[in-house]
Task: structure prediction
Amino acid sequence: MITVFFAYFATVSIVAGVLTVALRNPVHCGLALLAVLMHVSGLFVLLNAEFLWAVQVIVYAGAILVLYLFVLMLLNLKTDERYLHSSYPYFLGPALVGAAYVLFLLLRSPYEGAKGDAPVSAVLEQGDTYAVGIKMFSDHLLQFEIVGIFLLGAIIGAIVLAKTPKPIPRPTGGSERRGG
Amino acid sequence: MVPLSAYVAVSAVLFITGLLGVLIRRNFIIVLMAVEIMLNAANINLVAFSHYLESMAGQLVALFIIAIAAGEAAVGLAIIIVVFRSKLATNVDEMNLLKW
Result:
């Protein structure tokens, strides 16, 4: 059953990812990106990461994507006649060959390593949110604070950048400047 | 049971899709969307390894990546608005002020 769900989420997320890159109208690209995000969050559920699922839906689909769509509507972009970069065939071929090679290597390599301290049974018993919270506020508290400072800086930076600039006051008595 | 390499493969395909999007699209907003796809691919990898290697650290890093993606989207879209106000275009090949 998990295999079926995995196949569905994986296929749809990849197809929607390709559509996000390939569609012509930017609003359609945004909607395809929404499909990618929702199906990636489905993969998180399969991996017992319910907290990340909720964060993905709320932050990505709820906040980031709405911000993208707002900016798309605000700028009112026309669909370009030439929407791909002029030299894209030079990227497309090598990228596909390289991707095939990487996939071949990934599928045949074993993944083993030292197990950590959060076995699946313990996570299922306590709940993922509890486990993430305990880990975050004990071992990773400094990183958490740094992310908070980072977000504050990003908010201030975005406001400063996007604010309508004040017109520069003309010096009085000077002659009219002509733009060159 | 889905093997770990299946998740890694999905993540690799999504990452390469996003990388191609960054390289071949002209619209700056779509380029930022492709960056979001790449960040999501990295998140799949982190959560999958966190599940299979039974450690919580991967999910924490994925959480931090989501926060950084939010900041990146806000600042990137603000830059797009600034450029659009002066040039009336969002194409990356018309933003060449810093090119030497």
Q: What stands out?
A: The mean pLDDT of chain B is 88. Chain B has one domain: 4-94.
